[in-house]
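cron nightly-structures :: item 1 of 1
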Amino acid sequence: EGAAFEIASIAIVEDTGPVLTGDRLHWEAGRVPADREWRRLGTGRMLASPPLAIPIDNLGWVSLTARATADSAVTLHWSTNVLTGSRHETVYIHAGDIDRHYHIELQGHPQWEGDLVGMHFLLPDPDTVTITSVTLADQPEGPPDLAVTYFGFENGVNRAGRDESLLAQFINRGGDAAVPGALRLEWPAEVAVIDGPAGETGVRLMHGDVAEVRWTVQAAAPGVYPVHLHSDDFAEPSEAVLAFAPPVSLAAAYVPEPR
């Protein structure tokens, strides 16, 4: 607002608080001793750990719980005793009114080595994103979290009167292994389900694993028909709008004699 100011001095000093050590790291807002509490700096846009001295050779996953009022990108920065400066990775937080688990894989990163001396998260807006816990461990931690990544026709051209393939792809975004339960299709009378899975799929998905399920469907007439996929593993059903083109007639009015 037109104000003028100047910086008189800047000092870099040692943190006088205790240095956290151990074979893992866990912080939960409001549930740790005051000297282990993470600090919110920069009007709340930075969530910073206390000083650390944690060997990370066998710790390759950062798991956090967070909620957001809008889809947001959160950046994790870390420093080690063998790094100059810091490195960072970004995780995307989905809008919702409940805490969800998110996981950042750091094992294999060329600058993930030595002893971790500090880490912090940068938030786009402290009023938009809330981080409620952070865990550094050897595996992603948290419950299974199945999500549908695709639901629709498997092939590009699909016509009425013939069998077509309907494909569902889903991924386990959670920490623990997931065994998807029964998948249920809901379809209109104009569409017939010829074949597909019945009951549970039986597949076991670790974090990041993707599975595919297929159904054979057929429409009696051209048209656009909605189909819904239900499961107790998904918060909401998925919808596919299936467009069946008219069948192609290969009959010719005149076929010349071979010569």
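cron nightly-structures :: done
The longest strand covers residues 96-105.
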